[in-house]
Design goal:
The protein contains 7 helices and 2 strands, in the order H-H-E-E-H-H-H-H-H. The protein is mostly helical and about 160 residues long. A two-stranded antiparallel sheet has the order 1-2. A hairpin with a 2-residue loop joins strand 1 and strand 2. Helix 3 crosses helix 7, helix 4 packs across helix 7 and helix 5 packs antiparallel against helix 6. The radius of gyration is 15 Å and the shape is globular. It starts with a helix and ends with a helix. It binds fe (ii) ion (FE2) (2 copies).
Length: about 160
């Protein structure tokens, strides 16, 4: 049975807002701009909700199972690089290539990300990071929805 939009949003939020690190994640990621007026927190939330909706629709249509908890949490944490990537710095000169690893380390350190979630974060920039190929179906959904959400955010300005 298909879920109503209200139920979908309520179920989605339940995967993350009751985590004890949610407040930290929200405060920290709201400090940085991803692009335009979009903060990293808003971008991460949009990626998470779009990925959740996509996986739900896929599940309803093809009865494919998804680990929704890992999917939603990894999406929220996938850009936890926690610096302003617009600022010139030798430390993040190659931001596009290096931030997945930085975000995975921060997610592990501050949000107790599981091995699966950490792995998903490390591969979200594929194919830019050509050797870091997504390994789970949740990782593929994160990688796909991150790109689709970024394009939508950039063009909605
Ligand atoms: Fe990213
Ligand atoms: Fe992203």
């Amino acid at each position: 049975m298909k879920k109503s939009q209200y139920r979908l949003e309520k179920d989605f939020l339940n995967y993350i807002v009751h985590k004890d690190y949610y407040k930290f994640l929200k405060e920290e990621l709201s400090k940085y701009i991803q692009h335009g007026n979009t903060t990293v927190f808003k971008h991460s939330r949009d990626v998470a909700f779009n990925a959740y909706k996509f996986a739900n629709a896929f599940h309803n249509r093809f009865h494919t199972s998804f680990d929704f908890e890992s999917l939603v949490n990894a999406c929220y944490m996938h850009d936890m690089f926690m610096y302003d990537w617009h600022e010139k710095s030798t430390e993040h000169r190659l931001h596009g290539y290096t931030h997945p690893k930085v975000a995975a380390l921060n997610a592990e350190r501050y949000c107790y990300a599981s091995d699966k979630e950490t792995e998903m974060i490390k591969t979200h920039m594929w194919p830019l990071t050509i050797t870091k190929i997504p390994k789970s179906r949740e990782a593929w959904v994160l990688s796909l929805c991150d790109k689709a959400t970024t394009i939508a955010e950039v063009f909605s300005k």
